[in-house]
Amino acid sequence: MNSFRYQAVQTSGTAVEGVIEAEDRRSALQLLGQRGLFPSNLEACSTNAATTTSTPTTKSVGFSFGQSVGRKQVTALTREMAALLGAAIPIPQALESLGEEEENLALRAVVLQISEAVRKGESFSAALGNHPQLFGTLYVSMIRVGEEAGVLPKVMNDLADLLEHEDEVRGEVLAAVAYPMFVLCFGFITVGVLLTVVLPRLFGMLQEMLTVLPLPTLILLKVSSALHQHWFVIIAGTAAVVGGSWWYLRTPGGALAWDKIKLKIPLMGAVFQSAALGRFARTLGTLVRSGVSLLPALKIVENTIGNRVLAAQIARVAEETRGGDSLAAPLRKLGIFPRTVVQMIAVGEESGKLDDMLLKVADIEERHMRARTKTLISLLAPILILVVGALVGFMVIALLLPIFKMSRAIH
Q: Are 108 and 40 in contact (CB under 8 A)?
């Protein structure tokens, strides 16, 4: 038996190191994989240098949550991998080079493990499929098509373009929502502090000076007293409601119900629908351009569209397409897209440029989504400011009324 000193990353993102006994390097890698460890470095060591136990010791890597792998890191890895493959660098060497330079320990361990799997004879797509938490169905399917068609560098570039575009759209939406969310959170915190900390002390003084308080002051007094005395029950109840809702939304029935509600919310429903349809058209167009036939592409899109209601309609489209119908005919029948968009898809099918038309449709739907989001935010921000202002104004009036009453009594 030989001793191997290793540095690895656990599934939680924590870096560990230790010594393991194995017959050879391959056996050591297999043992570490069975223990849920992703090795970033594995070196043979002498018997004297070996530790007496193979139990991994945790290595300090700062904050553990800093080692999680984000979408943008996967997108950057895809773009870099496409560039290396375009330069005719073999897949194992490209992965090993990227893994050695990767600063994120969790992603580095995964990339090196994929490289090792490819070196052992596993296909690139199959090695990626072993890590579904990072590389989803769409990602693996496009890589498999690129491998089978011999155009992997081109497919990797198309995939990188798709991921970068999705990241860009998601960033724009988050940036647009950031200000209203800040206003809402700041307003809740301000009102909460006033009701639970500041006002109870002032009301105590006012009650000593006045026997009868104005109605707005009494209302605010009751609310403030309830929050001040039962804050723990309120927080626990809110946490229970949030936790129960979160659990329900993770069930199939709850997720389906929430997807139905999202599409019916005034103003917001149109935004969700445009976003989902834009994702459908762009993903399907990218898949068709990469060489995936229409029916398998629709199956992939069905699992990646992000809305179960629309996914069920896409499944119906796939079933009708299986019978020999074109894509435009079932889309027109189900009314998923506007007529002009369906006409564009029909023209794309007739001219043999379905992928180009689908990408143009995606641009149209995404422009609609951006315009509707801007309109919604332009309405939402003033409304939130008015709501917060009305709450603060009511509290100010409730405080000033007894003061005015005392001043009139003095005069």
A: yes
pLDDT 10s per residue in the chain (411 long)? Answer: 677 777 766 655 566 777 887 877 767 777 777 776 766 567 777 544 444 444 444 443 333 344 577 888 888 999 999 888 888 888 888 898 888 888 888 888 899 999 888 888 888 988 998 888 888 877 888 888 788 777 888 888 888 888 888 888 888 778 878 888 888 888 888 888 877 777 777 777 777 776 777 888 888 888 888 887 887 888 899 899 999 999 998 898 888 899 899 888 887 888 888 888 888 888 888 888 878 788 888 888 887 777 888 888 888 888 888 766 678 888 888 877 788 888 888 899 888 888 899 989 888 888 888 888 888 888 887 888 888 888 888 888 888 888 787 777 665
Q: Rg (Cα) of the chain, in Å, rounded?
A: 29
Domain identity same for 315 and 372: yes
363 and 294 fall within a common domain:
yes
* Residue 20 and residue 124 in one domain: no
Q: How many residues does the chain have?
A: 411
For 23, 174, 189, 226, 376, the CA distances from 186, given in Å and listed in that order, are: 61, 18, 5, 21, 20
Structural domain contains residue 355: yes
CA angle 324, 327, 329 (to 5 degrees): 85
Neighbours of 32 (CB within 10 A): 24
171 and 130, same structural domain?
Answer: no
Phi, psi of 265 (to 5 degrees): -65, 130
The Cα 63–Cα 59 span in angstroms is 11
**Across-strand partners of 39?**
8
97 shares its domain with 75: yes
What's the domain count of the chain? 3
SS3 label, residue 130 = coil
pTM above 0.70, yes or no: no
258 and 359 co-located in one domain: yes
Answer for the pair 187, 384: CB distance below 8 angstroms, yes or no: yes
